[in-house]
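ok so for the tutorial part 2 we go from a plain amino acid sequence to predicted structure tokens. step 1 is just haveing the sequence, like this:
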Amino acid sequence: MIVRQLKDIIGTKNDVDTEGWNSRRLLLKDDGMGYSVHDTIIKEGAELPMHYKNHLEAVYLIEGKGEIETVADGKVYPLEIGTIYALDQHDQHVLRANKGSHMRMVCVFNPPVSGREVHGPDGAYPADI
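step 2 — the prediction. this is what the tokens look like for a chain of 129 residues:
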């Protein structure tokens, strides 16, 4: 059994902090579950183009407000507490946190990430590192 607490992840190598987001990686590839789980903060006012070409992702919003826009059709979906979205088609998207509000999300990736990934110039995590 794997048991972890967020407080034990914060400030470690599994706490990946960038200009627009902070991902605390709770379960990773080496845990052998077949997926990874992250507690992620999208920082206030951030606008993040992303395209997970190598991963499927499901995201559940637990704090804050923002929006997600699908690049292919320009459709914008409001995000608020209790919203889940799934990028089941490797959807290229733009994630935005409202001014005055961060967004805190529980993110699940399949295949799992290894731990130190950040988005490349194309908005994707690498296939496997």
